[in-house]
């Protein structure tokens, strides 16, 4: 299209008035900065999402099998054996999740305990989150528990072979004597063998890990009863494919959840924040693009002589206007392309070299640099947003240029 080719030539040609060159550069720079900010901000959100995934992988399994109805289900041990035979599955462990009260040296506090079966370390890398002591199920004749750092701080309990801690749960069966409230609870005594820290509030505040057989005895559960099954998937194997196979094996009575499903609320919150921020930045991009209209007004004035020549060569008035409409579109797209490239370069530099550090004591932080991950899908979304904004600016330019050409002072010769 001839109008497009002329507009493209105008985009790169030097203007006769220096002010037009400066204003054009400012317009492109405004769009570029806005587009760059969108790419960088989306990459930062991707980085925090990846950080959340890494933290979740330290305590949440690749897959969790849970009953659709009810708190627990029977036959967990036999079902675990069947799932372990599926290709891609490396380990399966029955788990019981419940609430209890822990009697500590300083105070008694409510806790959420997680009772895990043998081979739990094959599903979750527990040793990587133990900050004091070790992960063992039993020492001599006493069972052992592991406390989260929050529980350890509040109760004053530390790994020791000379001090025991008591865990209380409400009695599930039998009569309760109102005259003896203590009979309403069952308790067990255990050693504290380790303290774990995951840097997640839902785990670090009130989590206690105990052996599965202790929990079954304490809660009067049957030998094959559990709340869920935690499944480890072999490295390099598609978790989705294994999830489909596990779902087919366990039937419709169970939900098979991957890590994103297990922490759906957390990831949904990150996604909502990410795209709300994206919409706000797109609005800023749109506002920045309005500077192009002032550039076009000066360009129309400067190119009045050219417009007269085009009309003499047979261009219609609409054809001349189309040149400046394309000009507005090209300026916006050019600025957007420059911004996208700059945003990718800055994000990759931060991703690989960690140029911008987080404020605070590095010893107290999980990471010391802003996490950034560049996603090509996000870059494509930004590119689409730039094109949409450019098209909108073109439509506004169409109305604006019509008014300019209808102005008697700027009419071209027929």
Characterization of this structure:
With 414 residues, the protein is an alpha+beta fold. The chain is 51% helix and 19% strand. It has 14 helices and 11 strands. The protein has a 6-stranded mixed β-barrel with strand order 2-3-9-6-8-7. The radius of gyration is 33 Å and the shape is elongated. It starts with a helix and ends in an 8-residue tail after the last helix. The C terminus is likely disordered.
Helix and strand topology:
Layout (H helix, E strand, L loop, with lengths): L1 H11 L5 H39 L6 E5 L8 H9 L4 E15 L4 E9 L3 H4 L6 E4 L4 E2 L2 E7 H7 L8 E7 L14 E12 L4 H4 L2 E5 H7 L9 E6 L5 H12 L3 E5 H4 L1 H26 L1 H12 L1 H9 L4 H37 L22 H31 L8
Parallel strand pairs: 3-9, 6-8
Antiparallel strand pairs: 1-10, 1-11, 2-3, 2-7, 2-10, 4-8, 5-6, 6-9, 7-8
């Amino acid at each position: 299209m001839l109008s497009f080719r002329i507009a493209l030539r105008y985009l790169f040609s030097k203007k006769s008035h220096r002010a037009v060159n400066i204003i054009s550069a400012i317009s492109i720079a405004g769009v570029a900065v806005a587009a760059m900010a969108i790419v960088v901000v989306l990459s930062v959100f991707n980085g925090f999402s990846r950080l959340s995934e890494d933290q979740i992988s330290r305590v949440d399994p690749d897959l969790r099998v849970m009953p659709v109805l009810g708190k627990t289900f029977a036959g967990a041990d036999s079902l675990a054996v069947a799932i372990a035979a599926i290709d891609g599955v490396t380990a399966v462990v029955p788990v019981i999740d419940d609430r209890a009260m822990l009697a500590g040296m300083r105070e008694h506090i409510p806790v959420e305990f997680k009772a895990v079966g043998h081979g739990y370390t094959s599903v979750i890398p527990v040793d990587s989150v133990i900050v004091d002591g070790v992960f063992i199920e039993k020492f001599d004749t006493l069972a052992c528990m592991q406390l989260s750092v929050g529980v350890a701080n509040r109760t004053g309990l530390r790994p020791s072979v000379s001090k025991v801690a008591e865990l209380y749960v409400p009695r599930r069966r039998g009569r309760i004597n109102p005259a003896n409230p203590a009979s309403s609870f069952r308790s067990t005594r255990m050693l504290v063998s380790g303290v774990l820290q995951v840097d997640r509030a839902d785990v670090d505040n009130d989590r206690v890990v105990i052996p599965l057989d202790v929990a079954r005895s304490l809660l009067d559960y049957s030998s094959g009863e559990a709340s869920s099954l935690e499944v480890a998937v072999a490295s390099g194997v598609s978790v989705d494919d294994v999830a489909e196979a596990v779902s087919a094996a366990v039937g419709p009575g169970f939900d098979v959840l991957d890590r994103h499903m297990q922490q759906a609320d957390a990831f949904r919150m990150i996604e909502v924040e990410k795209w709300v921020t994206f919409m706000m930045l797109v609005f800023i991009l749109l506002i920045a693009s309005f500077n192009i209209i002032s550039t076009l007004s000066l360009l129309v004035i400067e190119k009045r002589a050219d417009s007269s020549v085009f009309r003499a060569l047979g261009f219609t008035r609409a054809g001349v206007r189309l040149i400046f409409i394309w000009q507005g579109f090209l300026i916006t797209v050019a600025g957007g392309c420059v911004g996208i490239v700059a945003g990718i370069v800055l994000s990759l530099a931060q991703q690989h070299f960690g140029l911008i550090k987080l404020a605070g004591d590095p010893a107290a932080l999980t990471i010391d640099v802003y996490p950034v991950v560049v996603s090509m899908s996000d870059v494509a979304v930004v590119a689409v947003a730039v094109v949409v904004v450019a098209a909108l600016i073109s439509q506004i330019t169409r109305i604006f240029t019509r008014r300019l050409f209808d102005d008697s002072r700027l009419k071209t010769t027929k």
